[in-house]
Amino acid sequence: MTADKTIVHLLRHGEVHNPEGVLYGRLPGYRLSEDGILMAKAAARWFAERDVTAVFSSPMQRALETAAPLADALDVPVTVDDRLIEADNHFEGMTFGVGSGSLKRPEHWRYLLNPLRPSWGEPYKEVAARMKAAVIRARDTASGHEAVCVSHQLPVWVLRLRAEHRRLWHHPAKRQCDLASVTSLAFEGSRLVEVSYHEPAAGIAKGPSVAGA
């Protein structure tokens, strides 16, 4: 007997209104920009013909706003899962860099000593573990169908690295996880059989990239 095929899609939120260019991380009040709203709608259209029976989201405003048009289109409620939240980061609320950024202040330098953990925030292993648990919940809830989990760039990318048995430490500029992108995990029963990547919002203008999104 063939095991049920279930797909869990990890949807990164759309572009955020962030004119100051701060690393907003888990700070409240960061909403989607006008382009971000268009990205969320583009993602909803991409999912419209798919067999999605469950939608989960990070508790952050930008994630919930990305999930909203998808949930409306599919008539599926959004379930908040705190495990999908952005990674914790020491530099939250600051601009990151030299010049007027946080790196010119010596008291921050010790947080950069170990990029493998990383020393500036939530360990990659812990992020991967909580994301894996959230995906298992989504997979079991939508067994035989498809589920969407709306999350953030770093958590999605670290989970993909774990799923593909790659090292977790990495250069942020090399993440394949664009705004409103979809990283899909296909399962046969409980066995992961395929990882794929899609960009339903490609072509929609994007502002400057800020880490911690």
From TrEMBL:
GO MF entries: phosphatase activity
Entry GO CC: cytoplasm
Pfam family of the protein (one): His_Phos_1
Name of the protein in question: Histidine phosphatase family protein
